[in-house]
Amino acid sequence: MTVDKTLLRALRGEALPRPPIWLMRQAGRYLPEYRAVRQEAGSFLDLCFSPELAAEVTLQPIRRYGFDAAILFSDILVVPHAMGQSVRFEEGVGPRLEPLKERRDIDALQVEGVVERLAPVMETLRLLRRGLPQEVTLIGFAGAPWTVASYMVEGGSSRDFALVKGWAYRDPEGFQALIDRLVAATVAYLDAQVVAGAEVIQLFDSWASALPSGILERWSLRPMRAIAEAIKARHPGIPVILFPRGVGVAYEDFARAGGAEGLSLDSGVRPAWAKEILSPQVTVQGNLDPILLVSGGEAMRAEARAICAALEGRPHIFNLGHGIVPQTPPDHVAELVSIVRGAEA
Amino acid sequence: MTVDKTLLRALRGEALPRPPIWLMRQAGRYLPEYRAVRQEAGSFLDLCFSPELAAEVTLQPIRRYGFDAAILFSDILVVPHAMGQSVRFEEGVGPRLEPLKERRDIDALQVEGVVERLAPVMETLRLLRRGLPQEVTLIGFAGAPWTVASYMVEGGSSRDFALVKGWAYRDPEGFQALIDRLVAATVAYLDAQVVAGAEVIQLFDSWASALPSGILERWSLRPMRAIAEAIKARHPGIPVILFPRGVGVAYEDFARAGGAEGLSLDSGVRPAWAKEILSPQVTVQGNLDPILLVSGGEAMRAEARAICAALEGRPHIFNLGHGIVPQTPPDHVAELVSIVRGAEA
Description:
The structure is a homodimer.
Chain A: H1 6-11, H2 32-40, H3 44-48, H4 51-65, E1 69-71, H5 78-82, E2 87-90, E3 94-97, H6 103-107, H7 114-117, H8 119-131, E4 137-143, H9 145-154, H10 162-170, H11 172-196, E5 200-205, H12 213-234, E6 240-244, H13 251-257, E7 262-264, H14 271-277, E8 283-288, H15 290-295, H16 297-310, E9 316-320, H17 330-340
Parallel strand pairs in A: 1-4, 4-5, 5-6, 6-7, 7-8, 8-9
Antiparallel strand pairs in A: 2-3
Helix pairs in contact in A: 4-8, 8-11, 9-10, 9-11, 10-11, 11-12, 16-17
């Protein structure tokens, strides 16, 4: 008999008395045990591609806090790396890619063979399925095509997204070719993640906020829906969570037309608005400000309780509005978990 | 007899057949004539505090494009500078401030004397009132307290706003003292701007997007409304435009309760949503993506027309969703103006 995991129940639309909880970037630099593994791993990509180490850091926050879900430790930029683009991570700077500049750079990207080149990630997932407590759900993930494309064209993080938006405006057909390749590669990659043991898929569109309203549907919503539908066609019953960060009012469109069971809200969204406006078919996830987890104390406790109260009676997964930041005191995370579970004094 | 300026008519609630147009950061590095003046001015703050030069760069885009409004050339960080904080601008890096770290740093900030120390700005405004064509409206401005406070506490631009939000969470009373001082200094400064000739005031809350929904009202909406109300109490009839960038659904709150005539929308807001949802009492301003102005062409033309069409029949000021970026071709700006005025081929 399989255990009825709380995260899967919430994603099937069940409003639980206490929401399940996991936190974006729950495996990471704020944990001393992560920093110890990170130090012995060589480069950041080496860590992503070392199944034993990647599985170990994925499990660390589960052991420490007993979260309801574990999310594969990896990075959204392993996909362009597997497509043949040069990707490296500079300490204290962030990702650096050899930027795509013209159509032939797009045409040179390989979709075939992506899964083979990402085989270590699938090995990590297999190790995790064996190593996780049976009540903990295993989440696989990928970057959404728009966000991944923005790194591929900008060559790293960007302030104004001028290069990638400029391309999309000037040459929408060429840019569509890039997005289509990313959709194909991402579907193949996530399909393999599910085969290897992922039970839920989350798509991160961290830079959806950079898209003006007129092109948000084309470059963010449609590619994410295409991926969600393809995964469901191959694996009926696998829930998908979309995280189009910073889209404001357009969260409504993603709830209605995103083709996913879950929608992760950034901290700018009022939970009461989400409850009133978003399709009741979608399970909302979120949305505590990660900086409240740094400062902790009564402000954190009050806001965590307010989020749970505002979303009571509707399917809800407790999470942050964005990833944990490195300066977060680990004790604050423990306190948050006990508050959400209603176990604190 | 005074000319009935189009910008003022729009801000009084008139839906004009063609919206008036001006663009945020219309005086700036994309213009060769600006770069020429900038080079001879010494530091960036020297330029802000040289009335003849600041007036000259304010007038440059008016001469070139015939915008309906000129906005004072200055910077939001002249206020902390005038309050006694060390502020400098590093070429290619951005602003650098000696960050506020504890309560006594806040208590040391001076509100008295701010207007005297900003006297050159008022001289710029007086020069502009004499130098501007009579149909062009003169806009004064200041940063909103939250955004200015974020620079004062972070010491510059920030990725995650951890220091300033941490302060607001940990010590809301202390942080309120900083906001209160900024409100007082900003009211005195804007009062003097109006006396010197500003006909409209815009408040820029560029980093309102960093505020989660639970504290957006306290740190963004309320201080901006306090400033707007104080200016109106002293100068009845002076319209105020609020620009709480990136607040998504909460634009509705600012339209209803912001105490201002105008609301400037970032590019993430769908104009049709704005027309349907925002209080009809408020004049909406915006919201073309500045990157469309870089790429130009049919995409820019179509989107500019779509914005005008979506907001037809309601008071509207055409603008961007954010400031012009330096790589913008000046010819694209000319084409945009002629499209909005309906004069293009």
